[in-house]
Amino acid sequence: MTANVSFASASDTREQKPQLRELAPNVYGYISDFDPNCGFVVGDEQVVLIDTRPTPRMARDFLAAIRTVTDKPIRTIVLTHYHAVRVMGASAFDEVEAIIASNGTLDWIRTRGQADFDSEVGRFPRLFAGVEEIPGLTFPTQSFHGEMSLWLGPHRGQNRELRLMALGRGHSSGDTVAWLPDCGVLFSGDVVENHCGVYAGDAYIGDWAGTLDAVLALKPRVLVPGRGAVLQGEAECAEAIGLTKAFLGALLDSVKTGIAAGETLKGCFARTEAAMVPRFGSWPVFQHVLPFDVSRAYDELRGIEHPVVWTAERDRELWQTLRGE
């Protein structure tokens, strides 16, 4: 019986009010304590959004913040990846002409978009306030392989570039980072977190370290992580990238040790929790993400290359198995 299972995130009822942060001229982050971050860039003729928030209701708050600094039309949305908690607010922006994502993200939406949406609504009730307004899945109107550039018009004597790059598999199969070379600002999506639990339930954990190395090679001077405070300066950005890698390494190492010892998924979870709590247990959402992370690591290390689709029922069964709640 799983109907009454309650996730760790269900007890998170404190509303977070995101703060608008100017990161560079005409570049802004919309930054929460530890809810998903998003942002935007003001170009010569339009505004480009980086993700959109979980629901139209929450996206309207984002829109109101944008309107405190510009009245230019919002024409383009960039999706860093597909998780419903980041993209389902898109319908609040009625001037949008293009929604851009990587080919991997487009495939993700086609194959598991509805299941992910149903799952996340159950996992994050606070973030999906107003869920009834969502008209359907958010699909890109344009997708790309590798990288593409958006040219935003004159800025300091040059045509400003917003470069979208799919640097490799990691948090999902289609992660995109948004990079402004002229000012060194990077929007990482959930490839990088800042002292927040790293969700790997849909990840390619073994590949993620290489993707993080590619992010580090950009030498960002300002980094908007998926969750957590904005990182300032190359050293701080590099530290957060390293901590994300350390979290994932600890996860894989512990689960690998458990599998070698013949432990079940539950045994691997107990081992991994005990190993990781001293260093990472105080991070926001750690207790929520860890069961999903261990489950995916357990699968990946036993040869299951692609993440198994999460459904609301599978979520509840896992939580009951590992947490006994």
TrEMBL record:
Matches recorded under CDD domains: metallo-hydrolase-like_MBL-fold
Origin superkingdom: Bacteria
Pfam families assigned: Lactamase_B (PF00753)
Domain Metallo-beta-lactamase, residue spans: 35-227
InterPro entries: Metallo-B-lactamas, NDM-1-like, RibonucZ/Hydroxyglut_hydro
Alphabetized SMART domains for the sequence: Lactamase_B
Stated name of the protein: Beta-lactamase domain-containing protein
Species of provenance: Variovorax paradoxus B4
